[in-house]
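Give me structure tokens for this 830-residue protein.
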Amino acid sequence: MSSDPSFGSWLKQQRKLLDLTQEMLGQRIGYSGRTLEKIESGERHASRQIAELLAQALDIPEDEHAAFVQFARSGTLAPTAGAPGNAPWKAPHRHTHNLPAERTGFIGREDALAHALDLLRHEDVRLLSMTGPPGIGKTRLSIQVAKKLAGEFEHGVFFVELASVRDPDLLAASIAYALQIRESATSPLLQSLKEHLKARQLILVLDNFEQLVEAAPLLGDLLSHSPHLKLIVSSREALRIYGEHNFPVHSLSLPGMGETTHPERLLGFGAIDLFVERARAIEPGFALADGNASTVVEICRALEGVPLAIELAAARAWDLSLDEIRAGLENKLALLTGGPRDLPARQQTLRGAVDWSYDLLSAQERALFRRISVFAGGCTLKAIEAVCNVEGQPSLDVATLAASLLNKSLLQRAAGAGDDRRYRMLEVIREYAHERLVESGEAEAAHHSHARYYAAFAEEAEPHLRGLEQAAWSDLIERDHDNLRAALDWSLGESEEGHRAELGLLLGGALGRFWEKRGLPGEGRHYLGRLLAQPGRRGHEALRAEALAVAGLLALYQGDFPAARALYVESLQIRREIGDMPAIAGALNDLGVAARAGGDYAYARALYEESLRIRREFGDTPGIASSLNSLGTVMLFQGDYAQARLFAQEGLRIRRELDSKPGIALSLHILGDIERSLGDFAAAGTLYEESLRLSEELGNKPSVANALHNLAHIAIHEGKPEHATQLFKQALTMYQEWDDKPGIVECLTGMAEVAVSKEQAALAARLFGAAEALAEATRYRLSPPDQIEYQEALAIAQAHLGEALFRESMASGRAMPLEEAIAYALTAIK
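Here you go.
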């Protein structure tokens, strides 16, 4: 080569030295062979991007990249370029890697990269398998690890692309081709490969190995013959050969659900950083800011931190707004298209990536993969076995097949151990699997099996939500909350068989106590309202009556007393038509609760008395205790404290004999209200404390909130306003969480009383005004002890402020939106 070569002539000589055609080198940098032909002939100069890619592909030392890029762009080497004296480029040499050039920055895997490097630097780690589902970034991480290690291995690192290789017998030939080992007549190719590797210290990166796992023993053979060889393998599943170190590749990091979305604090979360960097490549002015940060976080969460999905979503920034991208993620597979055309087809769309994996499955693996898509949020192996062996279809060995899908990274292991060990799919993979399920014609049967399983589970759980085990069973239901929602959603669809309506009503009726105890009345009313309102869904009358009663309970919980009363009336009517006397007694008691809440005490008392009569006739001891406590409550509201105490005490006695802890907690609460109405605050406090202890033990959140609220009133009378404030705030936060408007009224009123005790009369008047407005909107009446204390505190505030200022402050509170009033109560009182 002349002392002053052109870049084109140098590139041509270097390429030939490496036994590369223009097309082959072009593939490595992502450009056509025609582009390289023009550069070598001097017809065009290399752009900065091409020059930088060539520097990587040709193994130019990093500290000489700037000089090399200038050489490539100008066509000749300038004296001021800063290159070493023997460029270009030093002496021509065979490069020591063929890694694909990186066209984008490496983002979000710093910890994983460091861990992988640390492992491979250990002498005894010679095979590292990067495993994970499609699109998770196995290939990119493998290449980055190899690049970092290239200078530590005398003979470099070599990349072997196996995506198009389906025959295990071609593995050795594929590796040999990447290493430029030629087959000869005198030496078999495998023997030549072994001889080549035996004397060399290098790393092989074997990409997309999943379809060649049968050939994995060959890798063990190569390692045993080559003491200085190390392998990095990217695969959906582990190879399961001796000496393998499995390295699962996880999704990129995301901020937690409760964490801030302030732009500066989002930096460092891999998923967010990747989206921003890729979006900026499409729209150079794109930046994370207050106005878009929360939307970016929502997008990345919806994509579960999967790098390929995030890159494809960010690529849509050229034609869609962030809000449109977020909305489009309801159909992720349709939106996530349009990747770079020079990537393999399977990486241009997320669907292509999953197609690739699906095509490699056996027929039975595909069947289970499709059917698992009916689960939402994860499931147990027991649930998979029960649901996925669909009636009328060949039986599947679920345990074996699930293990295989797990090994292939199409299924993931979630939290849990033993029988509780759970499995889940990434959402984008589940969406793909469900499309395949629909295509197969199995969707209706699979969803029916799923709904039937979870309806049986809900039925089993329902009685346990009333006893000592209610906290544990509520947790079990919570764990499968997404599956129960999915079953309910499916039950609302149309079907010729009609079994959807039955399963939906069964599920809705069984989940009522869960919705109540977990503070989810809005969700329960949403589902039950749709189930009960759909045309053509009559029938299953006993189930319908139960669903109406549950809907009434949840309406009552939210302070919607007219709706609760109407629902209970319809439920009672159906039960009278059926003639189920125990059920009639329960419906009478339910309707009495709604009547009492609405202020119709005489009607409520008559309903309770009829319910008690039926229950005594049938010897329903738990029911008798319930009716006695109901009678005690209505008599408390009527001001008949002595009679109320007798009924409540009898109810408590029965419940203690039955060891019914939920019932005991409720009876204690009623008796505490009676004692507080009579002015015995010490006795009331003792009763409330025991009620709180039992409620916390049971995990009954509504009962806990009630006890906290009542104990706050006791604290006011004990002269402990700070303690009362904290108790009220705890209760108010809980009531707000599940939109319990009666509870919110009680807490706003109680916190106003605290303000009065602290001589903050204007603050108290505003809270009184907010509480009154909400009570009027919901037609809620304070309990007698709350009402007594409310009137006393109201009079004090009015006297302190004077009529005009008092009315002005009350009006200000009444005008507050509810959320503002709650925030005011939580922050204004210290």
